[in-house]
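Treating backbone geometry as a discrete language has practical consequences that deserve illustration. The amino acid sequence and the backbone structure tokens for this protein are reproduced below.
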Amino acid sequence: MSPTRAAARLFARRARLAPRHARRQLSAFPLSMTKVVCTLGPATETAEGVQALCDEGLSCARLNFSHVGDYSEPAAKLALVRAAKGEHARLEGSKDAAGSRFPNLRAVLLDTKGPEVRTGTLPGGVESFTIGDGMEVVCTFDDVSGDAAPADGAARVRLHVDYESLPQTVSPGSQILLDDGLISLRVTDVGTTSVTAIAENAGPIKARKGVNLPGSILDLPALTSKDKEDLAWAVQSGADYVALSFVRSAGNVRSCRAFLERCRATADDRVPLIISKIENQEGVDNFEEILAASDGIMVARGDLGVEIDYAKVFAAQRDMVNACNRTGKPVIVATQMLDSMMRQPRPTRAEVTDVAAAVLDGADAVMLSGETAAGKYPIEALKAMKHIVAEADAILDARRAHSPPRTAVDPLGDVELDAVALSACRAADSLDAKIITCITTSGQLARAIARHRPSRPVVAFCYSAEVGRQLTLLRAVTPILLDAGAAEMDPFRSDTSMGKLRAESIRTCRELGYVADGDRVVSVDRSTGKAHDAFALSNTLKVYTVSADGA
């Protein structure tokens, strides 16, 4: 049976088995499998805009720090995300001003500017000029603002490039790309302080536009002074993830992690997880070591498509996604996924195929950039993304329910935890369970389950918002705060009953509409042994059939 037909039969069967009222609940509050990251910007940076994104399925809000100078702007965006109503607003007994019993658990990702090469002030201080086909362009670190403004049809021009080591980086025959590859220069001569190149095509150039050196190894620091200031703000503000730009080696990631650790006020402060952005050939070449040092990966196809042959981007994307699936680390596929929706209310067929292919390949999350930051149709773009993702997820999860994942997962060092996590996924498939629940204090258990790519949603009950938000990029995982306010529900007390915590978790799932009477739930938890036990730690898997008379 084809995966598409299997998906249709599986979901039709679920619809027939569920009571009519339950079907309405579940369609109203769907659990996300593949996640969506949305960039905040002028089109969405209001309370109404952020709430609309949250209502339509935003899992993680991206704050782009490429042009941030005043931290009041990102602070305001972060506050809007934290204040937006989340899933908890559906529960009875709401307490806070946002209408939730708990804060919502949508994450905030700070995307660093990173070390990059750009053009500087143009000759004559003009805003732009046209580089003609065949024009001789002298790239130099010197200030050229005092040069005469280029005349139409000029044969030669000097262009400031803010990379002093350019002559030591390129050689005759090397390619220099300006403004995201719109203008191509071919190096003809390398001097002591400048590089001479010939323009291979015509086009306008402005100040502060990006310069790419495909195939070259750049002499740039892992973190710029701006990056360090931004990372310190991320720690102090409680950002959940940082996207580290232009990662070229594992050493870059280690430098970032060491700096984040130094920014902690106390040893108990939680630091952001590091998502390494792969944007050039060096990052692709060193991917395995970068992955090992990182908490997750972003396939940043914008610069990657300029730095390497664009015809090889799809293969690099698939290889990186497969490697992340193998190691159980989240991977985001980003850049121009629904780019046309910055101007049009519907995506192109090619964009639909691109998003679906990323999901079917195994992406944990897909990202909207300009579409939600500055586009004309930000909410429509998110709705379209969610619609495409849901269709692809249905095919993918039906396929996984009937056959093992295409990519084998590397075993965890904790073999007992790994075995229980894998068993939970298999039990959910064989029993046609509605969801998998887990109770986790650190997030480790939820990560162990997610790395096996379950075909059923995983509801991870946490005791801290910080832990929950750092689970939001994991495919299939929905973090929920467990109401552990009462002493007998405190997970850190030795006399706490895990049975009460499990019952509370299932009652919460019923309140949220995730399950209804007659649904099966696979529940997983870890607990420390009591004084009379002959073990220090137990990993428990239980199966429940939801009933109004019981859970």
